[in-house]
Design goal:
With 482 residues, the chain is mainly beta. The chain folds into two domains: 29-202, no CATH class; 206-380. Helix content is 6%, strand content 41%. It is built from two helices and 34 strands. The chain has helices at 2-21, 129-135; strands at 38-40, 44-49, 54-59, 70-74, 80-86, 97-104, 116-123, 144-152, 161-165, 172-176, 179-183, 194-198, 209-216, 220-228, 237-245, 250-255, 283-286, 293-298, 303-310, 315-323, 328-338, 341-349, 356-364, 378-380, 395-400, 405-409, 414-417, 424-427, 441-442, 444-447, 452-453, 463-464, 469-470, 480-481. The longest helix has 20 residues, at 2-21. The radius of gyration is 23 Å and the shape is globular. The relative contact order is 0.09. The model is unreliable at 1-22 (pLDDT under 50).
């Protein structure tokens, strides 16, 4: 009888394990699911392509558009599903590397590991990308190696989990519903490489916090997500922004409270606490030119918020916000491009998220400490900057390098806008582009035509001359009053 009882228990446990192993089966063809699949700085751009289980790597200089500066590297294990990739904005060009965070598809990987993983992929090639460009020799990904691969296997599957890397690429934070950890791949002591905390010890008042986006500066991190209000609450969850130190201590909290007369006041956010949904993503970007200014996008409320971090990095205060009307999707991605320039992705959906209308990137070039300016300066696509035939009109995210802009579409296509000097614009007209690479599509610097001008650096197009002024075409960065 005892043997029979033991076998019965083993059978039950096996069935339960088999059932749990089938829970997490992400759509590997989706470039929008679970996290940001694209990251870049002025040295390297990397895209996680889960459908082929490869990383697409493009090295700078990005204006050298031939495929010789592009290569791909296979995931270290086909069972490793990548949520997000990230690169420190100010990492140097010696031995470029990027961070990867994700989860092992059940039951285990080839080495028997399960749970969440984090790793650093380093290029150990002693020859710089610029040297390959100078001699016209194709670059190789054979020198990339995975380092400090770590697993957190004591927690169940995490539906909501974000990765954020400090500007110099010295550490990464992984923030999830059940746990958070600090990852220091360059620590001298092996025990210090990863430090894991139960999330209830981190988030205030023992709340259940479901992170959606985060960004890290040298001294602090800003993370946005939803706090579960409980099954008996009319509002199932509340959008919350935490300011925290980089040792995972929450310093200040801001929560979203809509005005009673608005349509946002009727939102229950009922779908935000179950499975991951593009409807409830968020975006965060700290201005690298002035870290006291932070943009947070909340597309489920169609709202973009500008915060100020004050008192030595210990408080966060709402400075201004933009409500973009009665659809959803405004603020799906945010990116600072200069001290006074920002880009905001508006992928407009119906309120039930059943119908996608359009995607545009709004460019603001008159931002200051208290607002993004009175109006949008320009929108992408436009006549000077079309999407072309290789980029899907459904744009799902944007990132900056931080002066250039990359757009990720729903099929994994990348449209890369290099910042240009005054008098020139970043053309994506395929009739003007050099090179043979199709992913990414990289812009080319083109002079403003007569009758238009551009008087500052940036990715924005040239503008028509104002009444009473002219530009005959030989000084495209200046206006002449007549």
């Amino acid at each position: 009888m005892m043997v029979t009882a033991i076998m019965y228990r083993i059978l039950i446990l096996s069935l339960l394990f088999a059932g749990s192993a089938c829970v997490f089966a992400p759509d590997t063809t989706s470039y929008d699911a679970y996290g940001l699949k694209l990251s870049a700085n002025d040295v390297m751009m990397v895209e996680a392509r889960s459908d082929s289980k490869t990383f697409l790597v493009q090295f700078a200089p990005y204006n050298y558009t031939a495929t010789s500066l592009q290569c791909s590297v296979d995931y270290d294990d086909p069972a490793h599903y990548v949520y997000s990739v990230d690169i420190g904005a100010q990492q140097n060009d010696r031995n470029p590397y990027f961070f990867v965070m994700g989860e092992v598809l059940p039951p285990t990987d080839q080495s028997g590991n399960n749970g969440t993983f984090v790793a650093l992929w380093r290029n150990n090639d002693s020859t710089l990308a610029q040297q390959y460009a100078n001699i016209g020799q194709p670059i190789s990904c054979d020198y990339f190696q995975v380092e400090q691969l770590k697993f957190v296997s004591t927690y169940a599957h995490q539906e909501f989990m974000v990765l954020s890397v400090d500007p110099f690429g010295q550490f990464a934070l992984v923030l999830a519903t059940d746990f958070v950890f600090i990852y220091r791949p360059f620590a001298n002591n092996a025990n210090d490489i990863i430090t894991v905390f139960k999330s209830t010890y981190v988030w205030p008042n023992n709340v259940t916090f479901m992170p959606r986006a985060a960004d890290t500066d040298v001294n602090f991190t800003v993370v946005a997500g939803f706090v579960d209000q409980g099954p008996n609450s009319q509002i199932r969850s509340k959008p919350v922004v935490y300011l925290m130190s980089n040792n995972l201590t929450v310093l200040d909290t801001w929560s979203y409270t809509p005005t009673n007369s608005t349509w946002q006041a009727r939102l229950t956010n009922a779908g935000s606490t179950g499975v991951w949904s593009a409807m409830y993503v968020m975006s965060v970007d700290i201005n690298p030119f002035d870290p006291t200014r932070v943009l947070v996008g909340m597309p489920s409320t169609n709202t973009l918020i500008l915060f100020t971090v004050g008192n030595g990095g210990t408080t966060i205060t709402l400075t201004s916000f933009i409500d973009n009307g009665g659809n959803l999707g405004f603020g799906k991605g945010v990116a600072w491009l200069a001290l006074n320039q920002a880009a905001v992705l508006n992928s407009a959906y119906s309120l039930d998220y059943s119908t996608w209308f359009s995607s545009q990137v709004y460019l603001y070039t008159n931002a200051n400490a208290t607002s993004l300016g009175a109006a949008v300066t320009a929108m992408i696509p436009n006549s000077q900057q079309p999407l072309g035939t290789t980029i899907s009109p459904l744009m799902i995210n944007i990132i900056s390098t931080p002066t250039s802009l990359a757009i990720l579409d729903g099929k994994g296509g990348i449209l890369f806008f290099l910042a240009t000097l005054p008098g020139y614009y970043s053309s994506t007209d395929t009739n003007k582009l050099r090179g043979t690479a199709t992913i990414p599509v990289i812009s080319q610097q083109v002079a403003c035509i007569g009758g238009t001008y551009k008087n500052e650096s940036g990715v924005h197009p040239c503008f028509p001359c104002a009444n009473g002024s002219k530009n005959p075409g030989n000084s495209p960065g200046k206006l002449f009053i007549y």
